């Protein structure tokens, strides 16, 4: 599990004068499920293309199993890719699409048949072998693309937003399916997505990227609970981010009040970003809270209500299962472990304010919306 | 069901210029000079078997040569930058801005016994070659005149070929040759089929090229038909019968080609 398989060292990539990857360093361990997560144009697809051999970095070193592979063409790498929108061969049926890599490798006809049939049952497509690929639904095409890559028993499987074109229900099913296949085969998965939920659900390791740089590497729990900066805190889930001052270890001040927290190691009186997750905030009657505010908007979300509360002109998002009317004055209590302190960064002040909140905020995560941007980014390649 | 109204002008056009002439040809083919029904026109056709064979053979050769020139050309051109492609396309199309007959006359004066080519060869002391009025000259004329019709469809298919398929093939272990053989060529077949049709059909029916470059020696179907309508052997009934036979030949050739296409709907066959 812990053996290092791929190493990206000081990787830079520039298209024309635009720096797409900015001194990227990343180690990928054998058999792990690693996700590159970030918004459109953050460099995640470019990183994947470099690993796959479809792009050559401007500078830096890519090693595979300790060997430099910068100039090794894609067909000589023990890496297979599940492409965005699959790229299944339209002139071949399902069987021949999956058999493609094996035929190139001159595997015997008998073994091809066995391995393709095995693969078809892994992806639950038995009986589809002689269908034309354009007769398949999106989810089925997706599974053919996965089978076509996996049948070659690669060391590493690259997946470029493979679930982007599927509807929500199917996406959830395929997430579980992919995780299961990964655990079953022990193949290293490197997964690219802009969907934070997908990343948290499936990954062993999440790499959050923005502007060609890695913002944070960690387990899904680390990334969610201990975001390193305002960008990560905002991109992974919802966050209220406030300006604060760290008085001493375990004591932070914001809204002119001191709160206990679990963070330490900051300079005395150092300005910091304070993250409070909307679901961690406890609502109590106004006179019993540490802070009191007025409810300005309520949106029903199914499991919970998105409640926007105005604290002295600064609006917070609170997720609660109890309904509070607009105009109601409520109090809140914050426990020490509800408060997470981050160092100031270039992202401070850009995120985490719900003053301009509207019910549409989550459409920014809409896959189609982001996908168009992604294609623009791809064109530069 | 979509409304049919906008299609009416086209239906009228097709009726006047396609259906009615075809109907007249059928009527002529099955009647004699007195207007009586007869099959005589068809029973006499075996006399011209050699002409049929010769036409098929030369059209086949011309098509094969066009394909051998056009495919690598189109393939390499598709790899070039957009400006180069545009200029190259312009040069491919340029000869077509000139009259077809004029171009063929030009070849006549090049290939003549004391034409440009032989004069040029004479400078090096090479004896004049007999070039004009041979099957070779006719095939050359066909290839020269119809080559663009082969290049264009193949080029446009290869140019539009999605790069993702090529990357997918490389990803699955295919080197350049495998990628070409297993992905690029099969995916460009619709263009090849269109090109083959667009060269084969005019080649089999041409009469000007064989007349000018083949003299009387290379006598093709087109010449035979022309002779029945305009020439000395005036017999529009026989000419119609031969035309129908040629139509049948073309249809058969198309059906055979379509089998190779394996149901590729992208092919422009006519």
Outline of this structure?
The complex is a heterodimer of chains A (381) and B (270). Chain A is α+β, with helices and mostly antiparallel strands and 381 residues long.
Q: Could you walk me through the main structural features you see in this protein, from its secondary elements to its overall organization?
A:
The complex is a heterodimer of chains A (381) and B (270). With 381 residues, chain A is α+β, with helices and mostly antiparallel strands. Chain A folds into two domains: 4-225, Rossmann fold, CATH 3.40.50.300; 238-368, Beta Barrel (OB fold (Dihydrolipoamide Acetyltransferase, E2P)), CATH 2.40.50. Chain A is 25% helix and 33% strand. Chain A has nine helices and 20 strands. Chain A has helices spanning 44-52, 94-104, 109-122, 138-150, 168-185, 196-202, 220-225, 230-235, 367-379; strands at 4-15, 18-29, 33-37, 59-64, 67-68, 79-82, 156-160, 188-193, 205-210, 213-218, 240-248, 251-254, 257-260, 270-276, 282-285, 291-300, 305-311, 314-320, 329-333, 339-343. In chain A, the strands form four sheets. Chain A has a six-stranded mixed sheet with strand order 6-7-8-3-9-10, sandwiched between helices. In chain A, α2 runs parallel beside α4. In chain A, 38% of the residues are buried. Mean pLDDT of chain A is 87; it is low at 359-381. By secondary structure, chain B is an all-alpha fold. Chain B has a single domain (48-261), classed as MetI-like fold (Orthogonal Bundle), CATH 1.10.3720.10. Chain B is built from twelve helices and no strands. The chains are: A alpha+beta (381), B mainly alpha (270). The interface between A and B is medium-sized, with 24 and 19 residues.
């Amino acid at each position: 599990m812990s053996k290092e398989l791929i190493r990206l060292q000081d990787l830079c990539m520039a298209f024309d004068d635009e720096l797409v990857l900015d001194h990227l360093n990343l180690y990928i361990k054998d058999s792990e499920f690693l996700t590159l997560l970030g918004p459109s144009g953050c460099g995640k697809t470019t990183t994947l293309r470099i690993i796959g051999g479809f792009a050559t970095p401007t500078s830096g070193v890519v090693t595979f199993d300790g060997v430099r592979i910068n100039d090794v063409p894609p067909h000589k790498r023990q890496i297979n890719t599940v492409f965005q929108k699959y790229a299944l061969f339209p002139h071949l049926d399902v069987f021949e699409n999956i058999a493609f890599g094996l035929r190139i490798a001159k595997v015997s006809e008998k073994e091809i048949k066995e391995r393709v049939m095995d693969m078809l049952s892994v992806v639950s497509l038995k009986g589809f072998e002689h269908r034309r690929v354009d007769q398949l639904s999106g989810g089925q095409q997706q599974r053919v693309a996965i089978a076509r890559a996996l049948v070659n028993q690669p060391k590493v499987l690259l997946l470029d937003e493979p679930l982007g074109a599927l509807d929500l229900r199917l996406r959830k099913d395929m997430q579980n399916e992919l995780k299961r296949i990964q655990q079953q085969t022990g193949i290293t998965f490197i997964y690219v997505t802009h969907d934070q939920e997908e990343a948290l659900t499936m990954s062993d390791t999440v790499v959050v990227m923005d502007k060609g740089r890695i913002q944070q590497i960690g387990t899904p729990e680390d990334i969610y609970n201990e975001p390193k900066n305002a960008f990560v805190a905002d991109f992974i889930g919802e966050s209220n981010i406030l300006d604060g001052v760290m008085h001493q270890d375990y004591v932070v001040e914001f809204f002119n009040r001191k709160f206990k927290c679990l963070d330490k190691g900051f300079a005395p009186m150092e300005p910091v970003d304070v993250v409070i997750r909307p679901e961690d905030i406890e609502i109590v009657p106004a006179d019993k809270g540490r802070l009191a505010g007025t409810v300005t908007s309520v949106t029903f979300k199914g499991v919970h209500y998105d409640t926007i509360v105005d604290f002295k002109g600064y609006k917070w998002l609170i997720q609660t299962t109890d309904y509070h009317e607009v105009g109601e004055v409520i109090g809140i209590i914050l426990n020490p472990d509800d408060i997470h302190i981050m160092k100031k960064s270039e992202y401070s002040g850009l995120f985490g304010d719900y003053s301009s909140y509207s019910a549409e905020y989550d459409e920014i995560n809409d896959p189609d919306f982001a996908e168009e941007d992604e294609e623009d980014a791809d064109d530069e390649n | 069901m979509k409304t049919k109204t906008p299609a009416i002008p086209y239906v009228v056009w097709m009726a006047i210029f396609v259906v009615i002439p075809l109907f007249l040809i059928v009527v002529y083919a099955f009647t004699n000079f007195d207007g009586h029904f007869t099959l005589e026109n068809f029973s006499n056709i075996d006399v011209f078997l050699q002409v049929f064979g010769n036409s098929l053979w030369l059209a086949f050769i011309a098509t094969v040569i066009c394909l051998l020139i056009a495919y690598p050309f189109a393939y390499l051109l598709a790899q070039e930058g957009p400006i180069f492609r545009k200029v190259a396309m312009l040069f491919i199309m340029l000869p077509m801005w000139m009259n077809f007959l004029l171009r063929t006359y030009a070849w006549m004066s090049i290939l003549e016994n004391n034409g440009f080519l032989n004069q040029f060869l004479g400078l090096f002391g090479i004896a004049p070659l007999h070039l004009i009025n041979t099957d070779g000259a006719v095939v050359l004329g066909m290839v020269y005149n119809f080559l663009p019709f082969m290049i264009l469809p193949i080029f446009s298919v290869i140019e539009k070929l999605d790069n993702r398929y090529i990357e997918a093939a490389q990803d699955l272990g295919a080197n350049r040759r495998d990628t070409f053989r297993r992905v690029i060529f099969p995916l460009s077949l619709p263009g090849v089929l269109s090109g083959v049709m667009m060269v084969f059909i005019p080649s089999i029916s041409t009469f000007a090229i064989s007349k000018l470059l083949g003299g009387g020696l290379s006598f093709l179907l087109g010449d035979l038909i022309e002779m029945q309508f305009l020439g000395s052997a005036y017999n529009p009934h026989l000419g119609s019968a031969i035309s129908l036979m040629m139509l049948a030949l073309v249809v058969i050739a198309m059906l055979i080609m379509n089998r190779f296409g394996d149901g590729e709907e992208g092919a422009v066959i006519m």
